[in-house]
Predict the 3D structure of the following.
Amino acid sequence: MLDKMSPLGRLDAYGKGENIDRLPCVPIVGNTAARVIGVKVSELRNNGPSLAEAQVEAYRLFGYDTIRIFTDLYVQAEAMGARVVKPSDETAYLDAPAITDASQIERLRPADPAHDGCLPAHLAATRIAVREAGSEVPVTTALTCPFTNASFLIGTENLVRLMYKDPAAVHKLCELSLQTSVAFAEAIMEAGATPSLTDPMSSSTVISPAKFREFSLPYLARLITHLHAAGKKVTLHICGKTDRIWDSMVEAGADCISIDNQIDLGRACVEVGDRVRLMGNVAPSEVMLQGTPDDVRSAVRTCVGKAWRSPKGYIVASGCSLPTETPFTNIHAMMDAVREIGFPVTEEKLREES
Amino acid sequence: MADEASLFQDISDAVVAMDEERVVDLVRAVIEKKIDVYEAIEKGLSHGMERAGQLFEEEEYFVPELLICSDAMYAGLDLLRPYLKRSDEGSKHKVVIGVIEGDTHDIGKNLVKIMLETAGFELHDLGRDVPAPRFVEKAREVDADIIAISTLMTTTMDGMAEVIRLLREANIRDRLKVIVGGGPVSQGFADRIGANGYAANAGAAVKLARRLLDGETVHAG
């Protein structure tokens, strides 16, 4: 099934409350893009042209509504000295934080996106993707938010202990991470794209809503202020449990909050749907990776049923980045389910069996 | 006795309050007054940690709070360890625990380990990024009652099924229980791969482990 509108046209019209062909839909494709162009996952990370090709081709294959340049969460922390393991054909992961002790914080410097780690490759990928497809689809580049990045600089267990034992040290790490985030964000925007914010460690699966407000929110708010100053709309993704911090995510300035499948989407619509757009909630593992196309179709219908009336809108999306080996058929099924529902959404259409 | 009871309660409270210094002071008092160290552990340190686990389940406490409570508990336990009789260590149920290969997120696994240790299990921690055969090897070596496997990543879940397959191959599947947990794991997944149980969090893991072993005779040899 072909779409009548381009993603940019669709999102623009949807934002204005005008008629569109279908709801926007973003199966959050990460390293699955490597499978699209038949290369190993590790070939994307530090190679701008390959990363761009993989993500642009994935967009063309599935026809979703946002390109996101992303390989893993550790690119900024690595650029500040963290050690990352890059398995040949799996997503990179953190091997060792940049420092092991708060006394070493003075050693850390904010990263220079033009030189450090694989940030230059991600920026190159961003420029290429913007050139190739930026006139039809929003191009975003993943940005790890300050609190999460701080956890990679000193290790999660260290960081959370310091929250009680040396709060000033945590603030220093978040501040350094913010400086890196802001510099990377500026470079992403200069490349013609929009930073896409992700902050998994801020989730209430890890820290309390009170600690989120103390250690994460101030830095998120400052980061988002920078993006707004450049006229960008901001999507903030936090996985895990988030229901008790939705208000804070809105307060941070997010225009769209991306939430995973562990929360009640219907409740999110009621509680914050009048202030922010919502996206997400289709289970990435149980449904997208392990389910059948029919499971995907029914999950999409359930999510749309809960959220299509949300005042600021709803983008059908997976609750988190898709696992690398997510079957293409399930990604196509997600898009097709959204096309089948069409627009405007009606209760009758959601009830239809086919 | 009333004195002891209130001392144990104070220890428990200090663990819940994340007050490591106070735990250490109170435990020193236990040693000085020659109070039963087992009781001090059970009614003081473990009791406090169980309450902390309860608060974690109720989402009053989160990962940082539970870790700092456990720091306080371990500080007390370290002081008491020299007063424990060696022979008592042998009768514990044994758990081999680890994060499956491909995943290096171990904070959830560490919390489960802490809670199981608190509950009196003997833990053999394989760490993170552990290949499936290693779980089986270690379980054989220590004659484990339970294998506990965790992952936070969807990409590595198949490794959990692999552990169970290897246990079957080695004909030791029915000699022990396999429990799984972690972000992407669900009861449905646990059932599908033939695990004995799934726990949603560290507190639930203790209840699950107890339930699975409850009423069973521990196999000999």
In short: The two ends of chain A are 15 Å apart (CA to CA).
